[in-house]
Amino acid sequence: MTPSIQADRYIDAKGQMCPMPVLMLAKAIRDLQPGQVLALSATDKGARRDIPAWAEKTGNKLLDVIEQADLLTFYIQKAV
Amino acid sequence: MAERMSLVLFSGTVDKLMAASILATGGAAMGMEVDIFLTTWGIEAFRAGAYKTNQKVSADFEEYGPVMMEAMQVKKAPSWMENLKGAKEIGEVTISACSMTMELFGLQLSDLEPIVDEVTGVATFVERARESKISLFI
């Protein structure tokens, strides 16, 4: 399934266990300009809830979540 | 003011250090200030170089120690020290050492890992923790 959102940066967190997905996300978001989009792929089961919780807490926007078997790809927009 | 998480880290076994480091990392990743107060065996775990050879697991689960350590290796889990370093990189994490334990064990700040920021007393911890949203004893 081709995602329709264009990401400015892609983070591969496949195979990484908690807390790595949110840690990698927190690190990477610093390098983005406000409004830019980051895509993060994760296989960690906790990420399904963790990434949205992170976005909610930090004021960044979760645009979409694409699910392909065990792989979740999150599209996050850095707060403007 | 950012919300704060206070962790009292009393334990020195890898299983509990992992839990503490993951909580601290989670807090830091979520934009909280994280205050870690090391005391007793927590200080032992932060002696310079100790983390490299620490294989201790809680006594009740001693027989699972080797299995757990191996699983962490196989699944490439970051070590608790790596998690804490990562947390410090992305958030405000302060690691303080309890002055009483330091005194009892005859330690100076320079005897501990450089990641430990300062030596403080219980009053400092209480002052900081009274405003914390999350306070945990590990």
Characterise the protein shown here.
The complex is a heterodimer of chains A (80) and B (138). Chain A has 80 residues and is α+β, with helices and mostly antiparallel strands. Chain A has 2 helices and 4 strands; from the N terminus they run E-H-E-H-E-E. The mean pLDDT of chain A is 93. Chain B has a single domain, classed as DsrEFH-like (Hypothetical Protein Ychn, Chain: A, 3-Layer(aba) Sandwich), CATH 3.40.1260. Chain B has 7 helices and 5 strands, in the order E-H-E-H-H-H-H-E-H-E-H-E. In chain B, helix 1 packs parallel to helix 5. The two termini of chain B are 25 Å apart. The mean pLDDT of chain B is 95. Classes of the chains: A alpha+beta (80), B alpha/beta (138). The interface between A and B is medium-sized, with 15 and 17 residues.
Number of domains of chain A: 1
User: Helical residue percent of chain B?
Assistant: 40-55%
Largest interface: A-B, 15 and 17 residues
Q: Can you tell me the CATH superfamily of chain A? A: TusA-like domain
CATH topology assignment of chain B: Hypothetical Protein Ychn, Chain: A
- Secondary-structure-based class of chain B equals alpha/beta
* CATH architecture annotation of chain A: 2-Layer Sandwich
SSE order of chain A: EHEHEE
Oligomeric state of this protein: heterodimer
Number of strands of chain B: 5
User: What is the architecture of chain B at the second tier of CATH?
Assistant: 3-Layer(aba) Sandwich
Average pLDDT of chain A works out at: 93
Coarse morphology of chain B: globular
Q: What's the gyration radius of chain A in Å?
A: 11 Å
Strand content of chain A: 25-35%
The total count of helices of chain B amounts to 7
